[in-house]
Amino acid sequence: MGERFRAALRPAVVVGLVGGVMALLLSLVGMVNAFAGRPIITGVLSMGHTLLFLTALVTGMIAARRVLHASRGAGRPVALPGAALAGLASGFPLAVLVLVGQVVNLRAVLQNANPVLYGLLTFGRDPGAGLPQLVLAGALVGSLGGALTLLPGRVSQAVVAGLGTMLLTGLFAELLQGILWDLGVPAATTRLFMVQKGLTVAGALVTGAAGALVQAVWASQTPKVRRRLDALPPERRRRVNVALAAVGLAIVLWLPQVLGSFLSYVLVLVGLYVLMGLGLNLEVGWAGLLDLGFVAFFAIGAYTLAILTSPETGWLALTFWQALPVAVLVALIAGVILGVPVLGIRGDYLAIATLGFGEIVRLLVGSDWLRPLTGGSQGIAHIPRPVLGNIALIGPQQIYYLVVAGCIIVWFVATRLRNSRLGRAWMAMREDEDVAQAMGINLVQTKLLAYGLGAGFAGVAGAIFAAMIGSVFPHSFQLIISINVLALIIVGGMGSIPGVFVGALFLVAMPELLREFTEYRLFMYGGLLIAMMLLRPQGLWPEPTVRLELAESEEPEVPARVTAATSPGQGD
Amino acid sequence: MPGIRVARRITGTDVAIWVTGAVLITIVVVGSVSTLASGRYTVRHWVDFLVAGLANGSVYALIALGYTLVYGILRMINFAHGEVFMSGAFTSYFLARSLEQSGMLNARPVVSILLLMALSMATSTTVAVLLERVAYRPLRRAPRLVPLITAIGASFFLQYTFRGLYGSGVRGYPQPAILDGEWGVGAMRILREQVLVIIAAALMMVLLYRFVQRTRTGKAMRAVAEDKEVAALMGIDVDRVIVITFAVGAMMAGVAGVLYALMFGQVRFFMGFLPGIKAFTAAVLGGIGNVPGAMLGGIFLGLVESVGPTLFLDGLGIPAPNQLKDAIAFSMLVLVLIFRPTGILGERLAGKKA
């Protein structure tokens, strides 16, 4: 018994220590410090501590699963203590950091190993009292994670939904209060649940319970509703769908009125990234052409619009509406032109070649050589605002409608494309170029159309972006934008259209709304890209066919010897 | 298909590509001729450019070895290798600073530089081995785009991890007094730090070449690069060889990091990006997967990048051609991939599915 017990607990300790190292990393890069100023529950829990607790929670969940796996089911009674042990272990690296920090001045090298961090890790007490508390809190949260794994799916989903709702309302309490005020909710009512920043204890309980309840009802009712919908005659079902779409559209159009200028601006950014995401999704997700220079087309769209409309360049001074189609066309042609030379390059070489293209475009528009055309490093300013009828679309609240219109059009085009002959040709090409060619697909034409159309979508985004900001600089078109777009389609799910929307909301809106995030944006994106590839390569909202393919292509567990004998070398 | 000549129709794409090539060659020739004819640059200028190019190129070559070794074995572009280089250089800054403060840097410069290199190599190796273990090993059987995307993610993750750990500012890297100044031989003059860079890089490359060619482990590496499954059947521990490959590449990058920091006198979390891409270009240029090719490619790229802006562009009347230095390197990358993906010494890979 003792032997089996120990064997089951070893993975728990390992997982716990790995989790602890993650927590240590989060602390040392400064995230815990940066988020400590943002309360979730005022006076009780800050976002900084929440980061650590989330790490312990996930550690506990993984540990419980590992223990169950290691002991082949016999470990069920050990799983919960295992998770607690993992949580406990995850606190140790942090405790060691604090103890070492008392003796050595780590700050000379590690800028965030400072007393503020030590204070947060010891809950503001001296290490003797604070560190046991930290480790115990880790054990507690770890066992909660273990419990979530062991409880039946429905219960743990409800708990997670409750905790998530509480976390999100706490994080965005400030914004929510503004919105509620605009909606006419009296301040006295709001005050019961939220203070300046963060929730009150009552607010935390109510939002948590509400989230859990909604999830529970949703989980139990959705299948019934869906069954009833499926039972409807097609005519009625279509009417229901149209009604739902109309309600959705009405909400989307009404949003900027409630949200105010800043949140509308955030939504405009999300929209621009959706436009780019749909374009890159077409190239990467459907045609399988990984493009790391995507920002080039965004830049080309923006610069074309700027050159055509701004009085500074003094050429044509067209209006926005006259210049927009030209900008899109120029981006589209640029896509085709850049596509021609790289036609013969495949796979990861293509990614690097396109990365080179993106950087060349940025360096060229910023150079003195092209200054007469692009304004060099000063860029082009005084781009006139779009005018619709006699309303100038000045602020984000007006540009929003432009972006929504753009998104709807591009979304429509993208959906039609996916189901067209061309879309199927792309996917065939993605799966196997040689077979696709053998099936009569013209690779040159198909690839160039993917580059051209994807670039055209990015051109729309670039043109709207230039008109919204009113100026363009080479500095706005860094590689980071390409990485942003890539990250959002991967998080959403490669090849999935709703995934683009989900990814953009998640990866663009969140960092804009949480100012503390801005500095850690690429840290998070990088981590997310790795985590998604390792744990959920199909994305948060995968395309149905991809889901099927991934399920199929999962290689069966063949012993290594057999694989070696039957499969040809990887290098061919 | 050796021995079989496949008749190929000349398509519009081929024509477009060859026209582009002809235009580029014309630009280069016309630019060079008119620059040289203008007589604005003396022999001395060109020698300076060449020496600087050689020094830069040796650093690229050292980094390029890491790309080439990993690609040779895993057929995978380790996009985060530039960050492996950065991690070593950035970490060694703190040691360099304390050595300077204690006066050791100037009193015992050779020992100090060796210490810096040791720390840099150790850090780079740790980062690379962790990266392999955590991010790449689980994905060895995944479709090809998956590890590449992971590597891109790892690149940014590492950059911003080190930004968070060590700060976002540019740090001035202290230089021992012995490296100040220059030596002159006739019309040639060479900065002392450039001498160090070129000699140290050459030494490391010779060591690596001997390691790969002569030792048992080197032989195992070549065997795994040839065919993983057969190598495994011959009793080679493939996982271990892969880890060693990452470590060896990282050691080269660690040395390159210190050399680069001594040459440019500063370190920053973002410093790995450009040298990383350029070293990758160098690896492709020399023929990826090919060790001497990476060395050659690095030096060639360094020379072109240093001489090119002035030689090709100045004569065409393009203002401030040095702004376009990086554009030239990137153009080289794209052009090599288009026209000669095999590189100077490599086998044809880019067009293959591999």
What is the helix tally of chain B?
A: 13
Principal-axis shape of chain A equals globular
Number of helices of chain A: 25
CATH fold-level name of the largest domain in chain A: ABC transporter involved in vitamin B12 uptake, BtuC
CATH architecture term of chain B = Orthogonal Bundle
**CATH class value of the largest domain in chain A:** Mainly Alpha
The strand line-up of the biggest sheet of chain B is 1-4
Largest sheet of chain B: 2 strands, antiparallel
Q: Measure the end-to-end span of chain B.
A: 15 Å
Order of strands, widest sheet of chain A: 1-2
Mean pLDDT reading of chain A: 82
Spans where pLDDT lies below 50 across 5 or more residues of chain B: 348-354
Overall shape of chain B: it is globular
| Cα end-to-end separation of chain A | 51 Å
Most extensive contact: A-B, 68 and 65 residues
Q: What is the H-and-E element order of chain A? A: HHEEHHHHHHHHHHHHHEEHHHHHHHHHH
**Which parts of chain A are unreliable, with pLDDT below 50 for 5 consecutive residues or more?**
554-572
Count of folded domains of chain B: 1
Oligomer: heterodimer
So, CATH architecture of the largest domain in chain A? Orthogonal Bundle
Protein structure class of chain B: mainly alpha
Topology of helices and strands:
The complex is a heterodimer of chains A (572) and B (354).
Chain A: H1 2-28, H2 31-36, E1 39-41, E2 45-46, H3 47-70, H4 76-103, H5 115-121, H6 127-150, H7 153-171, H8 173-182, H9 187-193, H10 201-231, H11 234-286, H12 295-309, H13 320-339, H14 347-365, H15 371-374, E3 387-388, E4 391-392, H16 396-418, H17 421-431, H18 433-438, H19 443-469, H20 479-492, H21 497-513, H22 515-518, H23 521-535, H24 544-553, H25 560-566
Helix pairs in contact in A: 1-3, 1-4, 3-4, 3-6, 4-6, 6-7, 7-10, 11-16, 11-19, 11-20, 11-21, 12-13, 12-14, 12-19, 13-19, 16-19, 17-19, 20-21, 20-23
Chain B: H1 12-38, H2 43-74, H3 81-101, H4 104-107, H5 109-136, H6 145-166, E1 171-172, E2 182-185, E3 188-191, H7 192-214, H8 216-226, H9 228-233, H10 238-264, E4 266-267, H11 273-286, H12 291-313, H13 325-339
Antiparallel strand pairs in B: 1-4, 2-3
Helix pairs in contact in B: 1-12, 2-7, 2-10, 2-11, 2-12, 3-5, 3-6, 3-10, 3-11, 5-10, 7-8, 7-10, 8-10, 11-12, 11-13, 12-13
